[in-house]
Every structure is written in structure tokens, then in C-alpha cells.
């Protein structure tokens, strides 16, 4: 008697999520280049950009590696800010004014860079 071995790999997609149909349409060279640039600006493939445009009418921009790095920096500085706020509330320590100003300048700088990216 043989025991069936489970196959490797990821499980099959359900029929509802399987993309089995193809939609094709023609565009001019200028239109193609414009759509390709817009997709690249959103960090999406041309297929994903077109799929979002057709199905929802909204394009959700994918966050790029630079934005993720900036968010990570903000998170680290947030921890510093929380520690300073704790000291202020717990012990009434007000001698961290320069550190707070540095963190606020950092936040302003990172937020400015994020706005430029978006």
C-alpha cells in the first residue's frame, strides 16, 4: 500500500482568484509610452497598473524601497521621542529641549522627502 506524498510548492489558486482571461486593446506608441511611464512612477507593472485602472478606476501606488527606508527612520526616531516624553511625564525632566528640537527637525526633513517622492 502506497502513501500519497504531498506535492511541493504553493497551493493552487481558487477559481475566483485565478486570472484565466486576457483583455487586449490597441494603443498608439505615444499612449503606450505614457501608460508605461505612469505605471513605473507608481512602482507597478504595466499589467497591474492597467488592471487597477480598469477594475477600480483608482491607481494605488506601491511604496518603493526609498519610502520604506524613510518610514523605518521615522519609526526609530519615534521611539526616541516616546522615551523623552516618558521622562518628561514621569520625572518632570525638561532638560531635553535640544534633543526634542533635533527630532522635530528630523521629522520635518523626512516628511519633506516623502512629499517629494509622492
UniProtKB/TrEMBL annotation:
Organism: Candidatus Alistipes intestinigallinarum
Top-level lineage group: Bacteria
Stated name of the protein: Mobilization protein
One family name in Pfam for this protein: NikA-like
InterPro entries on file: NikA-like
Amino acid at each position: 500500500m502506497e502513501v500519497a506524498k504531498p506535492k511541493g510548492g504553493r497551493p493552487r489558486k481558487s477559481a475566483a482568484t485565478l486570472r484565466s482571461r486576457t483583455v487586449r486593446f490597441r494603443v498608439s506608441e505615444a499612449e503606450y509610452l505614457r501608460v508605461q511611464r505612469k505605471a513605473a512612477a507608481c512602482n507597478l507593472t504595466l499589467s497591474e497598473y492597467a488592471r487597477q485602472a480598469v477594475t477600480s478606476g483608482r491607481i494605488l501606488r506601491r511604496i518603493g524601497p526609498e519610502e520604506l527606508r524613510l518610514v523605518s527612520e521615522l519609526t526609530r526616531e519615534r521611539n526616541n521621542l516616546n522615551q523623552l516624553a516618558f521622562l518628561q511625564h514621569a520625572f518632570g525632566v525638561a532638560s531635553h529641549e535640544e534633543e526634542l528640537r533635533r527630532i522635530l527637525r528630523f521629522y520635518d526633513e523626512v516628511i519633506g522627502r516623502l512629499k517629494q517622492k509622492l
